[in-house]
């Protein structure tokens, strides 16, 4: 059994002072922080989150913003579809729940853009429900500490039950997440300072190293950025966000040398509703 008492003591001493880790943070604040933190490091999220919560303190405030305002405020957090989904989510909260973020996991899951992780994180971290919250950090810590596997297989329904068994409450869930972010990291876990080392199954098994084949599979799952369509989309979005008026295609053409890739990226932005083409062939953010 994992030594959760030691984990909680460690968390009391090492918890990072993230701006949303505050007793007064609303459910909406927690929801935004969780959406922003997916696939984006918290150090980049923190200042942006602060700005958002001051500008749009409630779902109703955010629902009234235009898509262009939302995308400009999202800035360079990446994966900007998250911003549009968050906007739809706020509108649904206003319509279905009178502007109050629901506490029920199923009601949260029914909101646009809210997946299993976010729904449970809001229920757990704001509404203090003891529901399992599984992100990549928790998956990694539990995989190593409970089943002794250094690398984790793809997410499965089984892991929710496994995490529910080892977490003793909302603070324990947050502690597992923090341990994965700071100590039990993907490539080089700092086992010598780990509070649950004594009960960790991977340690008990003698720290078996993954095979070359498994390492290479895991490496392939890590998404590259440089040279990808995602990078080109980001560069095109930079131009659109900075412009007050629709831009000529020639202003977009200068951001990337490969015409085929640039055109594919631009088309995908239009398809995703992140860019709009005018009848005159210019481009702008959606309104
Ligand atoms: S002892 Fe090492 S592998 Fe086990 S949970 Fe701690 S950091 Fe992870």
What would you say this structure looks like, in words?
The structure is a single chain. By secondary structure, the chain is an all-alpha fold. It folds into 3 domains: 26-125, Hypothetical protein, domain 2 (Endonuclease III, domain 1, Orthogonal Bundle); 136-209, Endonuclease Iii, domain 2 (Orthogonal Bundle), CATH 1.10.1670; 229-284. The protein is built from 16 helices and 2 strands. The protein has helices at residues 4-14, 27-37, 42-55, 59-63, 67-74, 81-97, 105-109, 116-125, 136-147, 158-166, 170-182, 201-204, 212-221, 229-242, 249-253, 259-271; strands at residues 276-277, 283-284. Strands 1-2 form a two-stranded antiparallel ribbon. Strand 1 (276-277) and strand 2 form a beta hairpin. Belongs to the Nth/MutY family. Keywords: 4Fe-4S, DNA damage, DNA repair, Glycosidase, Hydrolase, Iron, Iron-sulfur, Metal-binding. Residues 36-182 form the HhH-GPD domain.
Number of domains: 3
Total strand segments: 2
Helix-and-strand structural type: mainly alpha
Beta content = under 5%
The unique ligands bound to this protein are: iron/sulfur cluster
A few lines on this structure:
The chain has 287 residues and is an all-alpha fold. The protein folds into three domains: 26-125, Hypothetical protein, domain 2 (Endonuclease III, domain 1), CATH 1.10.340; 136-209, Orthogonal Bundle (Endonuclease Iii, domain 2); 229-284.
């Amino acid at each position: 059994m994992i030594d959760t008492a030691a984990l909680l003591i460690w968390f009391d001493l090492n918890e990072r002072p993230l701006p949303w880790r505050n007793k007064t943070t609303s459910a909406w604040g927690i929801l935004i922080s969780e959406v922003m933190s997916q696939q984006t490091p918290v150090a980049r999220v923190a200042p942006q989150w602060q700005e958002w919560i001051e500008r749009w303190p409630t779902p109703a405030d955010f629902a009234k913003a235009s898509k262009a305002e939302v995308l400009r405020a999202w800035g360079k957090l990446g994966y900007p579809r998250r911003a549009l989904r968050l906007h739809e989510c706020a509108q649904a909260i206003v319509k279905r729940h009178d502007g109050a973020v629901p506490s029920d996991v199923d009601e949260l899951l029914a909101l646009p853009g809210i997946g299993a992780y976010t729904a449970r994180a809001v229920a757990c971290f704001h509404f203090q429900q003891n529901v399992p919250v599984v992100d990549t950090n928790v998956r990694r810590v539990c995989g190593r500490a409970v089943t002794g596997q250094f690398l984790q297989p793809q997410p499965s329904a089984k892991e929710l039950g496994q995490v529910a068994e080892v977490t003793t409450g909302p603070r324990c869930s947050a502690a597992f997440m923090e341990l994965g972010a700071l100590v039990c990291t993907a490539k080089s876990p700092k086992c010598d300072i780990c509070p649950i080392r004594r009960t960790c199954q991977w340690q008990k098994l003698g720290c078996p190293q993954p095979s070359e084949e498994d390492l290479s599979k895991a490496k392939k799952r890590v998404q590259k950025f440089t040279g990808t369509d995602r990078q080109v989309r980001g560069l095109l979005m930079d131009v659109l966000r900075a412009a007050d008026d629709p831009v000529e295609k020639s202003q977009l053409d200068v951001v990337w040398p490969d015409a085929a890739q640039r055109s594919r990226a631009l088309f995908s932005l239009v398809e995703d509703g992140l860019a709009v083409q005018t009848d005159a062939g210019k481009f702008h953010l959606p309104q």
